[in-house]
Design a protein that fits this description.
This is Leucine-rich repeat-containing N-terminal plant-type domain-containing protein. Residues 1-22 form the signal peptide. There is one protein chain. The chain is an alpha/beta fold and 296 residues long. It has two domains: 2-206, Leucine-rich repeat, LRR (right-handed beta-alpha superhelix); 214-295, no CATH class. The protein has helices at 2-36, 212-246; strands at 60-62, 68-72, 94-96, 118-120, 127-129, 142-144, 149-152, 166-168, 173-177, 187-189, 194-196, 269-273, 280-284, 292-295. β13 (280-284) and β14 form a beta hairpin. The longest helix has 35 residues, at 2-36. The chain is globular and about 85 Å long. The termini are far apart. The relative contact order is 0.06.
Length: 296
């Protein structure tokens, strides 16, 4: 009985040690990334090289098997470069490093992350060419490399990315022909480069969906303007109504009121009239051919 319990204990210990070993290479890769990004002592301070499992580290997310699936380090002020060791994170689905000052080239090893679905490296200072190895990321849905210093052509291997929903390569120094398959992606932007969009520039370098945000803002502005105008008109009419009603008592058949000094300066005359006992306020404007009539 005792020996059986000891065997169970040893088996559990071996399984635990195996999970530590599996987690160790992930922790080493992430710690190398931290160092290459020139993180300060106050940045990612809990990324401890002596702590084997990185799943408790800031901005690192794992699945139930302790596989790192997401690393999000956006807008943290990093100025270093990317480490090739990032390529060992085989289960990684999201890598977001946008909004930093990262320099250097995109490592070829990023193309080894075969489960990657979201790669966001925009708004950095990355240079060199886009590695063709990225064309092997067949699960990739969102790719953003915009606002960098990338040069050279868009790899032809990008035509082999069947899952792409959005590709942003704008504002770089890219040149050459855009692979035709990329124009079938629902949302794309290749502007701000020296790229040939279609044969003899026959295609748009940005999909219409890229302008959806600004279009919605314009529509919202128009709606707000219309509603504001209607509210102003109703308030203005209410003030005029009260003005005419306040002058009902003690009026003669026709009363002329000069309102040039009032804020409603476009009115030249206000007449109060009671045909058959119904008081009416008539507002005159020299520039209008038809007076405004209010029944009080």
């Amino acid at each position: 009985m005792f020996s059986r319990m000891r065997l169970v204990y040893v088996a559990m210990l071996l399984a635990y040690m195996g999970s530590l070993v599996a987690s160790d290479f992930q922790g080493d890769a992430l710690y190398a990334l931290r160092n290459m990004l020139n993180a300060s002592s106050s940045q990612l301070s809990d990324w401890n090289q002596n702590q084997v499992n990185p799943c408790t580290w800031t901005n690192v997310y794992c699945d139930s098997n302790n596989n790192v699936i997401s690393v999000t380090l956006s807008s943290m002020g990093f100025s270093g470069s990317l480490t090739p060791r990032i390529g060992v994170l085989k289960r990684l689905s999201t890598l977001s490093l946008q909004g930093n000052g990262i320099t250097g080239e995109i490592p070829v090893e990023v193309g080894y992350l075969l489960n990657l679905q979201n790669l966001d490296l925009e708004n950095n200072r990355l240079s060199g060419q886009i590695p063709p190895s990225l064309g092997g990321l067949r699960k990739l849905q969102f790719l953003s490399l915009s606002h960098n210093n990338l040069s050279g052509p868009i790899p032809e291997s990008f035509a082999n990315l069947p899952s792409l929903i959005r590709v942003q390569l704008d504002s770089n120094h890219l040149s050459g022909q855009v692979p035709a398959k990329l124009f079938q992606v629902p949302t794309y932007n290749f502007t701000g480069n020296d790229l040939n969009c279609g044969t003899n520039f026959s295609l748009r370098c940005a999909s219409s969906s890229n302008n959806t945000g600004s279009s919605n803002k314009s529509k919202l502005g128009i709606i707000i303007g219309v509603i504001g105008g209607l509210i102003g008109f109703v308030l203005f009419g209410g003030v005029l109504f009260l003005l005419c009603k306040g002058r009902r008592k003690g009026y003669k058949r026709e009363v002329f009121v000069d309102v040039a000094g009032i804020q409603f300066s476009f009115l030249n005359r206000v007449d109060l009239w009671r045909p058959e006992g119904i008081p009416i306020c008539i507002l005159y404007n020299n520039s209008a051919s038809v007076p405004i009539v209010l029944i009080i």
